Amino acid sequence: MEQEQQQITKTNDFPSDDHDYLSGFGNTYESESIPGSLPRGQNSPLLCPYGLYAEQISGTSFTSPHKLNQRSWLYRIKPSVTHEPFQARFPRHDKLVSEFDKSNSYTTPTQLRWKPKPVDTVEESAPIDFVEGLYTVCGAGSSFLRHGFAIHMYTANKSMDDCAFCNADGDFLIVPQKGRLWITTECGKLQVSPGEIVVIPQGFRFAVDLPDGPSRGYVSEIFGTHFQLPDLGPIGANGLAAPRDFLVPKAWFEDGSRPGYTVVQKYGGELFVAKQDFSPFNVVAWHGNYVPYKYDLNKFCPYNTVLFDHSDPSINTVLTAPTDKPGVALLDFVIFPPRWLVAEHTFRPPYYHRNCMSEFMGLIYGGYEAKADGFLPGGASLHSCMTPHGPDTKTYEATIERGHDAGPSKITNTLAFMFESCLIPRISLCALKSPLMDNDYYQCWTGLKSHFSGEGADSKGNGV
Ligand SMILES: O=C(O)Cc1cc(O)ccc1O
Ligand SMILES: [Fe+2]
């Protein structure tokens, strides 16, 4: 059997052009790195082309309705099961949570904000890779009960060597903020730059290389469901994130012996390791609709106010992970992209509000329209269920100063985002005790003055 042997060493063969990927959202895709390696007419032939093993990965129960069902068939050199038993990883990674309760996390309605974690200086004694550098900030629910979410952040300065990561708990939506990610998956390779996002569904094995060195970013993890495009309602058939802009890797594999290769499996928030003597990236061909994918946020087509008032942020939803209740998200991924502001006689920044949903925010670059200071790229904020928040004093005053009928203005050089959930997050110990916690955050609002004049009311406050 003839087979093109691929180089095992790390090379820059990470796709740099959109055409190097398959495109579309929720399609049934197929890809073969050797012509004829994908079985035709059936999934599980007695003998697969080139002597490959057939293996299915299910992202939904076998019996999920057709429109929700997700699974892929991978044709690989050796099946994933060919490994030594899983062992608890030592030393323990004690900064990951997948079942939020009083033993591992805390609750507070206070507005929270974190400064960015420095990444340029190696602050840890040893270099750390993506898995080591991942830490949970907040979340709710349980990976075991298949309902909930976790928000993590990462800082890392080293590529993953001879190891792959597999998250058995949920899907990762990764938002790199600093440094590109070269991600090898079982379906192929993805290059993800800041300004792009990548979704790695539950169970896929992947390895992260850091071609730019020190890197930082955000991760949301959802348990028990998958991301989908939001319904567009009256917007119509087009707008926001277009399905054709989602990019899926093409099949890529490595063959040969890899003694001492490790698969690190996150299972119930704990890490387990299993040794094997070959690379898990040995899938020569695959087909299915359960796949990793990436999306460039610059391709998002925003819709917004064209006459007056400030739209709710849901207008900028890129992806949503639903609950069983219509319109109630386990996790919405929303962005605040560059756009024209044209509203007349309107307070244009975000309004003051209290939300029954909880809002975690991050900033990829630039400044955020509601905060003149303190919310920095790589930093984060959390405004939980019914916690009041809104523009800081400087933003409010500058907006009023600018006047009512400011002409069109463009918000440029900015990319903020929000993970919004109907579940009420608990805060991890490491996030709550972090030296990066901005303890003065509340002061950004304390300067807001009363502008009330009282004219037009009687002494009891009744309108006259
Ligand atoms: O709180 C935030 O900054 C996010 C947000 C932005 C907006 O434009 C409207 C509501 C909202 O929660
Ligand atoms: Fe908000």
The global form is: globular
User: Biggest sheet, strands in spatial order?
Assistant: 1-17-21-14-11-16-9-8-29-6
Mean pLDDT, rounded to whole units?
94
Bound molecules: 2-(3,6-dihydroxyphenyl)acetic acid, fe (ii) ion
Structural class: mainly beta
How is the biggest beta sheet arranged?
10 strands, antiparallel
What count of domains describes the coordinates? 2
Number of strands: 29
Task: Please give a handful of descriptors for the protein shown.
464 residues, mainly beta, Jelly Rolls, 2 domains, 10-stranded antiparallel sheet, 7-stranded mixed sheet, 3 helices, 29 strands, 4% helix, binds 2-(3,6-dihydroxyphenyl)acetic acid, binds fe (ii) ion
Describe it for me?
With 464 residues, this protein is mainly beta. It folds into 2 domains: 84-279 and 292-297, Sandwich (Jelly Rolls), CATH 2.60.120.10; 299-437, Sandwich (Jelly Rolls). It contains 3 helices and 29 strands. The strands form 5 sheets. A 10-stranded antiparallel sheet has the order 1-17-21-14-11-16-9-8-29-6. Strands 5-19-18-10-15-12-13 form a 7-stranded mixed sheet, with no helix packed on it. A 6-stranded antiparallel sheet has the order 7-26-25-28-23-22, with no helix packed on it. Strand 22 and strand 23 (329-336) form a beta hairpin. The radius of gyration is 24 Å and the shape is globular. 2-(3,6-dihydroxyphenyl)acetic acid binds at residues 313, 350, 353, 355, 359, 370, 383, 389, 418. Residues 299-452 form the Homogentisate 1,2-dioxygenase C-terminal domain. It catalyses: homogentisate + O2 = 4-maleylacetoacetate + H(+).
